[in-house]
Predict the structure of Coenzyme A biosynthesis bifunctional protein CoaBC.
Amino acid sequence: AAGGPLTGRHVLVTSGPTHEPIDPVRYIANRSSGKQGHAIAAAAARAGARVTLVSGPVTLPDPPDVDMRRVESARDMLAAVEAALPADVAIFAAAVADWRAADEAPEKMKKDGNAPPPLALTENPDILATIAHRTGGRPRLVIGFAAETQNVVAYAQAKRARKGCDWILANDVSAQSGIPGGVMGGDTNEVHFLTAEGAEAWPPASKTEVAEQLIARIVAALGPLEIQ
Ligand code: C5P
């Protein structure tokens, strides 16, 4: 809302899965719902920020008062993120596909009694690492997520250093994590909040509450808007 603590700030959020084309009708995807990323974009807008939400294909409604940029693939997502800069804060909640088909077939691949075609994969760009390692125009706060199934804090702290981001929200997506129905696609989340100073275990909460807690930390870290 106008007059909120993020008034005058630009917050960039990625959300959802990516779809990586194999041919004109087939793609590689994952189970990300986009709920956490969309909740963060909505909370940032409620706090008064100008929000750009770069989202892969999701079935969620657009959050109110955000500038939506819809993309399909990881490469599209990186281009949309770069086009949306500069930003004060960038939050990378999307579940970006690690790999895409090395060659996208221009026409639908046919069965025609042949053996199944091989599917060669190639690595996608790491959007978070690319933006976090920028020397010019890096957002003041670059925030990533880490979904782990074991040693959550240790793996995520190593990931924070490797990717060059400021903060990571790490969650346990194993079946044993204790969240009924699971984190992926569910409405609740239990995260560890990791910074250079260490890790905090946040209590299980709705994805909206996790988003609001994150926004409160961002407000505290940015401080008051500098008057030019
Ligand atoms: O490496 P991993 O996928 O576990 O890292 C997760 C974090 O990195 C998330 O914040 C995700 O949005 C981001 N990421 C990205 N581009 C990729 C892979 C991950 O922005 N290609």
